[in-house]
Amino acid sequence: MIAKEWRGDRGQTLPIYIWMTGILLFVAFAFFAFAQAASARNGAQSAADAAALAAAQDSRDELVDGLGLSIGQGDDWLDWLEGDNFTGVGAQGAADALAADNDSTATLNPAEVNGYPGYRAKVRTNYTVGDSIIPGTESQHATAEATAIIKPRCEVTPSIDPEKAVEFQCDGDSFEIDPDDFDVDDLPDASVLFAVHLAK
Fold first, then answer.
1. Could you give the 3-state DSSP secondary structure of residue 168?
2. What percent of the chain has pLDDT over 90?
3. Under a CB-based contact definition with an 8 Å cutoff, are residues 198 and 113 in contact?
4. Long-range contacts of range 140-146, CB-CB < 8 Å, 24 or more positions apart?
5. Is the pLDDT of residue 179 over 60?
6. Of 91, 120, 155, 172, whose Cβ has the fewest other Cβ atoms within 10 Å?
7. How many structural domains are present in the chain?
8. CA quadruple 175, 179, 180, 184: dihedral sign
9. What is the DSSP-derived secondary structure letter of residue 154?
10. What is the rounded distance in angstroms from the CA atom of residue 35 to the CA atom of residue 170?
11. How far apart are CA 130 and CA 31, in angstroms?
12. Is the pLDDT of residue 92 over 50?
């Protein structure tokens, strides 16, 4: 009699065990799907950050090149130090290259934050979130945006005479430009003249 009751209890426990196991497996797969999505979003954000920074750095290099070519050619060379004379002709290419390195595609647009010029990069991953128990993830791409700006480090005052030697202070670093005795190699590194960083 006792043996029959024990077998009956075991028969009732088995469906509950199977049901609980199914729930645990579902929860595990759901967490895995969310982890996949988070990983894709992080990848997209990294690609967007890299693309925006690459575009801004390319334009910073253009500013320094333009500055070097304009010194001694007139009184407008000081305008290059204000950080808004670039054309951005190579910015999209720079953004594309960094986005591709992160297996993504970038769309770039000019942007301005607090008066500083820069770029807003919108990125879409070439890869998808992947198969999961959530329908549609196998064809869903992650997207992200980032904005990078170019900020001049040097102070340019209206009283400066562009025909004479000028000493600049650029966030603690000092250098001198003499239009009558200038060599492009005299220019400091681009990072001394302009800061490039992500806008918050």
1. strand
2. 42
3. no
4. 141/40, 142/37, 142/40, 142/41, 142/43, 142/44, 143/44, 144/41, 144/44, 144/45, 144/47, 144/48, 145/48, 145/120, 145/121, 146/45, 146/48, 146/49, 146/51, 146/52, 146/53, 146/120, 146/121, 146/198
5. yes
6. 172
7. 1
8. positive
9. B
10. 45
11. 14
12. yes
Torsion sign (Cα): 150, 155, 156, 158: positive
Determine the residue type at 42: N
**Residue partners of 133: CB distance under 8 A and separation at least 6:** 26, 29, 30, 33
- Report which residue type is found at 198: L
Which residue carries 């904005």 as its tokens? 147
Q: Cα 134–137–143 angle (5° rounding)?
A: 135
For residue 38, the enclosing domain spans 2-198
Cα–Cα distance measured from residue 49 to residue 31, given in angstroms and rounded to the nearest whole number: 27
